[in-house]
Amino acid sequence: VIILILFGPRKLPEVGSAVGKTLAEFKKSAKDIMDDDDDQPKTEAQKTEVQEQVK
Fold it and tell me: Where do the segments described as Disordered lie (predicted)?
C-alpha cells in the first residue's frame, strides 16, 4: 500500500519489475558465491597440494 502511495499506479509495474530483477540478480550472485566456496580445498593436505602445484 505504501509503495502504491509513493509511486502511484502508473509507476507500480516499473517498480515491481525493477525489484524483481534486483532480487533475481542478488540470488544469482549469492548462489555463485556459495558455489565458489564449494570449489575450495577442504583439508590442509589439499591446500598444501594446491599451493605446491601453483609453484
Answer: 30-55
Q: How far is CA 40 from CA 29, 32, 45, 46, 50, in A?
A: 17, 13, 12, 9, 10
Q: What is the mean pLDDT of the chain?
A: 83
Amino acid at 43: T
Amino acid residing at 8? G
Q: State the sign of the Cα–Cα–Cα–Cα dihedral 24, 29, 34, 35.
A: positive
Encode pLDDT of 21-37 as tens digits. Answer: 999 999 999 998 887 76
What is the C-alpha to C-alpha distance for residues 10 and 36, in angstroms, rounded to an integer?
Answer: 41
Q: Please state the separation of Cα 28 from the chain's center in Å.
A: 4
Contacts of residue 3, Cβ cutoff 8 Å, sequence gap at least 6: 12, 15
